[in-house]
Amino acid sequence: MSQALAPRRESEFGYTQRLRGWLGNHWGKPRFLVLVTWSYIVWSIVPVLVAIQFSFNDSRSLSSWHGFTLKWYTSTNPNIDSVFHSAELRGALEQSMKLAGLDVLIATPIGVLLALGLARWRGRGSGASNFLMLFPLVTPEIVAGVSLLLLFSQLLTFVPFGTVAQLLGHVTFSISYVVVIVRGRLFSIGPSYEEAAADLGAAPATRLTRVLLPLLLPAIVASAAIVFAISIDDFVISQWLSNGANSTTVPMEIYDATRATPQPSTDGIATVIMVITLLSVVAGVLVYRFFTRGESGRGSAIDDVAGFGI
Q1: Phi-psi category of 125—alpha, beta or left, where left has phi over 0 and alpha has psi -120 to 50?
Q2: Neighbouring-strand partners of residue 68
Q3: Which 3 state secondary structure label does DSSP give 142?
Q4: How far is it, in rounded angstroms, from Cα 102 to Cα 269?
Q5: Model's pTM, two decimal places?
Q6: Average pLDDT in the 113-127 region?
Q7: Which of 254, 280, 255 is nearest to 267 (CA)?
């Protein structure tokens, strides 16, 4: 009898030893960090997925599922404020896209030039300028919104509220993101390529346009994607500087809808804006990876610069 129970006891002892080994974590595997990471991912993504799901709900309920439908996106029924046929939702989407697109076109080149200037500046005041460049990043957005409201209503009264004021506000806080990303790229490539171009006889303008800017292109594209993403999702600045229905953005429309009686079309417009934001960020990442592939295997700076045709 005891001999029959021996294999079972050895098996139980083996399981116990393995369990103790796993709990003891002798090799120091970061199990707790993995648990925290996945907990955060689930906590942040599940509510978004639920909102997306109810944008396809066949009823107005946002708590019980009644079947799949696309009517909250495409219906022409006047009693249904569908995303692509409601004048308010379509106008908000157009306003958000317009502000984000113009913000990219204005903030990106200004941020690139500012990054180049701050990286090259070594004189008096350079430290203060670098600090002020980061100031919009650490300023609470509500403070920035109120400050811009007072600026345009008390001092720069010739600036009309609405699209113009909103665009100026978006550009103001977007430039810092471009500067941070482009300066990081500048520090990573170093001065060797410009010095090599100078040794080959390139003029300063040639070094900038044919050497430095092509090397900065991945960071420029990435910063443009980030600017587009944060601009299209902005609520506070857009709210404070709007002048009514003509300058209502998607975040403002969602805020107004949730204060009243939200419908699945509210989740629908939120889904559309989220997809656009994700696509812009993914496109920026893919372009960045495409242009930076194989950088670790580069040869000398002289050989690389010679490849630019200098």
Answers
A1: left
A2: 57
A3: helix
A4: 21
A5: 0.79
A6: 77
A7: 254
CA distance 148 to 252: 18
Distance between CA atoms of 196 and 193, rounded to whole angstroms?
5
196 neighbors 125 (Cβ within 8 angstroms): no
68 Rama class: left (phi>0) / alpha (psi -120 to 50) / beta: beta
Span 295-306, pLDDT tens digits: 654 544 544 554
First to last CA, the chain: 89
| Segments in 200-263 forming alpha helices (H) | 204-207, 213-232, 236-240, 250-259
Residue for token digits 């996945």? 38
Q: Amino acid identity of 270?
A: A
The span from the CA of 60 to the CA of 66, in Å, is: 9
Closest CA relative to residue 309, chosen from 192, 191, 186, 202: 202
Work out the average pLDDT over 69-85.
Answer: 82
Helix (H) or strand (E) holding 7: helix 2-24
Q: What's the CA dihedral at 197, 199, 202, 205 to 10 degrees?
A: 70
**Chain region(s) in the chain for CATH 1.10.3720.10:** 87-306
Tally of residues, the chain: 310
Give the tens place of pLDDT for each residue, 48-63: 888 888 888 888 877 7
**Which stretches of 25-57 are DSSP H helices?**
31-54
- Shortest CA distance to 269 belongs to which of 104, 100, 103, 88? 88
Q: pLDDT tens-digit profile of 228-282?
A: 999 998 999 999 999 887 889 999 988 888 777 778 888 888 889 989 888 888 8
Which CATH number is 87-306's, of 1.20.120.80, 3.30.70.370, 1.10.3720.10, 1.10.357.10?
Answer: 1.10.3720.10
Q: Tell me the helices (H) and strands (E) count for the chain, helix number first.
A: 14, 0
